[in-house]
Specification:
284 residues; alpha/beta; Rossmann fold; five-stranded parallel β-sheet; 5 strands; 52% helix; 8% strand; globular
């Protein structure tokens, strides 16, 4: 968290007494719900990376805005990678979990909700966005459902898996959870790197750095806190819709976005990588 950030009181739901939750909802009816996954992130990074970063980002934003921080949801992720120590669940199970969770939060009196997913296959991004729009429409509460990279697109973070960006974030959050010595000096080209090492994106061995992760985290936390503050103050989801539009715009030209995210100048390499990734997932 940057030195000029003002820390505000928040509570952790699982550690709170009922009267504390009631008081928090009465004063700052804002909920942060981080979503993660238990998923292989190469030999070099912790299996809970997705949830660790989502929990950290939500906590740092809550320190600025106040409200209630809920525990990260690690089990239940779908479209996880085909590697060891990686459970897979159905999309429909996650949809039911997210929908019911949002309904509970509305029932309990929350007027603004941030649903931050650190696990972000396209289907999950669509799911959290759609469910947040649904709760806003049906229950009249402001809601934002995004992956963290939606708040750092302008610095080149378009999303990856166990690669330059995710590894850098974890290095900044908890350095002991990253061990780049577990990777060979040369992780190979794009597809071999993904197939052999579970790294989908730019090689972390050569390009990940805690300083890069800290820069991205500070930016994401600042923007998330600002968006959450608007959600609560305006009692609508205009701030969420602005973020959604910016995210869609960043991927309006898929090949250009793919080249940037994967660190290649070749359209053909992006296409081949995408096809191979899709076919591999379908064979599971």
């Amino acid at each position: 968290m940057s030195e000029d950030a003002v820390e505000t009181k928040f509570i952790r739901f699982e550690r709170a007494l009922p009267w504390q939750v009631r008081e928090a909802v009465a004063n700052v009816p804002l909920a942060y719900v981080p979503l993660g996954a238990l998923e292989w992130h190469g030999e070099h990074a912790a299996l809970g990376l997705d949830g660790i970063k989502a929990q950290y980002i939500c906590e740092q934003a809550a320190r600025r805005t106040g409200g209630v921080l809920f525990p990260v949801v690690q089990w239940g992720a779908f479209h996880t990678m085909p590697f060891p120590f990686t459970p897979r669940y159905s999309r429909w199970a996650m949809k039911r979990l997210v929908r019911r969770t949002l309904n509970y939060l509305a029932d309990w009196g929350f007027r603004a909700v941030v649903l931050l997913t650190g696990h972000y296959p396209l289907a999950q991004i669509v799911l959290v966005r759609r469910e947040c729009r649904r709760i806003a429409r049906q229950r009249g509460i402001a809601a934002l459902g995004i992956p963290e990279q939606a708040l750092a697109l302008d610095i080149g973070y378009l999303g990856d898996h166990a690669a330059k960006w995710e590894t850098s974030l974890l290095m900044a959050i908890e350095p002991l959870l990253v061990d780049l010595a577990q990777l060979p000096d040369d992780t190979g080209s794009l597809w071999p790197r993904a197939k052999r090492h579970g790294i989908y994106g730019i090689c972390p061995k050569k390009h990940a750095a805690a300083q890069l992760g800290r820069h991205a985290l500070d930016l994401i936390v600042e923007r998330l806190a600002a968006a959450a503050t608007r959600l609560l103050a305006e009692r609508n989801s205009d701030a969420a819709e602005e973020i959604y539009r910016a995210h869609e715009e960043a991927f309006r030209h898929p090949l250009a976005a793919g080249r940037r995210a994967l660190g290649t100048e070749s359209n053909w390499e992006v296409i081949r990588f995408s096809i191979r990734s899709i076919l591999r997932m379908r064979h599971l």
